[in-house]
Amino acid sequence: MIKSVYLAAFAVIGMMSFSSAAAMDEAALKAKLEDKVGLTIESVRTSPVNGLYEITTNRGLFYVSEDGGYLLQARIFNVNEGMRNETEAAMSKMRSDGVEQFANAGIEFKAEDEKYVISVFTDTTCGYCRKLHNEMDAFNDEGITVRYLAFPRAGLNSQAYNDMVSVWCAENPQQAMTEAKAGQSVATASCENSVAEQFTFAQKIGVNGTPNIVLPNGDLIRGYQPADVVARTLKNAE
Length: 238
Known about the structure:
- By secondary structure, the protein is of the alpha+beta class.
- The two termini are 36 Å apart.
- The chain has two domains: 2-74, Disulphide bond isomerase, DsbC/G, N-terminal (Nuclear Transport Factor 2, Chain: A), CATH 3.10.450.70; 98-236, Glutaredoxin (3-Layer(aba) Sandwich), CATH 3.40.30.10.
- It is globular, with a radius of gyration of 20 Å.
- Helix 6 (159-168) packs antiparallel against helix 7.
- The protein is 40% helix and 20% strand.
- It has helices at residues 2-19, 26-36, 86-99, 127-133, 136-141, 159-168, 173-181, 195-204, 227-236; strands at 41-46, 52-57, 60-65, 71-72, 77-78, 84-85, 107-109, 116-122, 144-150, 212-214, 220-222.
- The protein has nine helices and eleven strands.
- A hairpin with a 5-residue loop joins strand 3 (60-65) and strand 4.
- The strands form three sheets. The chain has a five-stranded mixed β-sheet, sandwiched between helices.
């Protein structure tokens, strides 16, 4: 079965490489995809595979043939480098670079002896998010600063979104977050905030639930992990 999958993937890539005889420049390629597919193209760059461009979009990372005729959502593995996942490497860079834009917009629980900063996409109604929050002292004791970013699972037109805006806009966001995750109601508040932008960015980098943890190197942990496990993962990634 695995052999068949690889052979099929190589066949598709081979076909796409052949179709690139009439290669388009990057601007024309971007315009074609935005018109035909409806994606917002943020960047176009060469990929590790001849005949394919790597495109970063508002819906994640894709590959496209040089003539714009084929669009592919796939994983590229580098056989010559021990089956290194080139797609995941690109996604990790997207994550690590992207979370920095929210460095001053997250709600931080800072470790006194900070060794690492992790970005945790959270929802105040999520049971496992509450479990993680209950271990905040343990995370901080491990030298881990937790920076919360918003991911209202019900979407932007939901009460969860409104509640998270109120948390972000509270006079004391840390206290409001703790109260919300304890099941308490949070006073309605509004202000200039980036909750919607955080949610949209999360979708782009593959977050599909909460909690999802972005490590400093851009790796993504899906789901809850206790503080000691996250600490070991961070140490092993150094």
